[in-house]
Amino acid sequence: MKLIILGAGAGGGLPQWNCGCQNCSDARAGRIPRMTQSSVAISSDGRDWVVLNASPDIRHQLDAAAPLHPRGLRDSPVSSVILTNGDIDHIAGALILREKSPFALYATTAGLDIVNSNSVFGVLDPELVSKRQIALDARFDPLPGLSVTPFAVPGKVALFLEGETLNLEEVGEQTVGLLIESHGKRVAYVPGCAAIPEWLLARLENLDLLLFDGTVWNNDDMQRTGTGEKTGARMGHVPQNGALGSLAQLAAVNGRKMYIHINNTNPILQPDSPERAVVLNAGWEIASDGLEITL
């Protein structure tokens, strides 16, 4: 199984266009690497690829990844896109893929409702782009030799769907993780997760690689950096730090573990920060744009 981290950042990427925090300033100055918004490409043979979440940065991401370049005059190795939720940083890139190349768009009923109810997605030619419904815990094969099983994780609806009442840890089709299996290897992709209950831990056993939500270090990252008032919990993301954070909760999960979907304010992005040292000393890796992984 082959993977390419197309984008390691959370919504807005690094640097975020309107942010002058230390991380964003350092990224602009070239002191720390830039990150585009979270997306992963995965393949069973290195020729045909599935993209997990269509980031708004997808044009740049595909251009930066040589295995995803056209193989002919009008061609794309991208055979399908799978959506894990309806966040703008995961669905807006589908609009970039409108230039008359066929692919399949997979999403839960909740995800397809978002696409089908918004007329702007009509730019995706229905004769070329097939929309395929996926169900929780039901395995499907987007490519020969590669299977995917979506599973629910605690989360919230996309920002533009929020109403007067809001469940920040809702469990259902609005936020899913993906178990990907190929050639006897197992990968879980969970870019958004609001809590880690015992039943989710059971889902994450016996993996060769876990790509997990690394949005915030502490729940109040944005407040501490003066960049906003929203907490990680309000955005639907479990922090890395603390007794209920992912570092502690996932400590017993074996296999390779890597944080992805990292917010521009997260201190682990600084190479000499104590927070980064804690993450690395705990055996975790930190995703970066362009990273290629073979399992």
Quickly give the structural class: alpha/beta
Low-confidence region ranges: none
Query: What's the total number of strands?
Result: 14
Sketch the topology as an H/E string, one letter per element: EHEEHEHEHEEEEEHEHHHEHEE
Going across the major beta sheet, what is the strand order? 6-5-4-3-2-1-14
- What percent of residues are in strands? 15-25%
Any guess at the CATH architecture? 4-Layer Sandwich
Mean pLDDT: 96
- The CATH topology assignment is Metallo-beta-lactamase, Chain A
- Report the helical percentage: 10-25%
- Tally the helices: what do you get? 9
Radius of gyration (Å): 18 Å
CATH superfamily: Ribonuclease Z/Hydroxyacylglutathione hydrolase-like
Terminal Cα separation, in Å?
A: 5 Å
Shape: globular
CATH class: Alpha Beta
Name its key features.
295 residues; alpha/beta; Metallo-beta-lactamase, Chain A; 7-stranded mixed beta sheet; 9 helices; 14 strands
Q: How would you characterize the overall build of this protein?
A:
With 295 residues, the chain is α/β, with parallel strands linked by helices. The protein has a single domain (2-294), classed as Ribonuclease Z/Hydroxyacylglutathione hydrolase-like (Metallo-beta-lactamase, Chain A), CATH 3.60.15.10. The chain is built from nine helices and 14 strands. It has helices spanning 22-28, 58-64, 88-91, 109-117, 198-203, 221-225, 232-235, 246-249, 274-281; strands at 2-7, 39-43, 49-52, 78-82, 103-107, 129-133, 140-143, 146-152, 176-182, 185-190, 209-213, 256-260, 284-286, 292-294. The strands form two sheets. The chain has a seven-stranded mixed β-sheet. Strands 7-8-9-10-11-12-13 form a seven-stranded mixed β-sheet. The longest helix is centred in the middle third of the chain and has 9 residues, at 109-117. The model has no long low-confidence stretch (mean pLDDT 96).
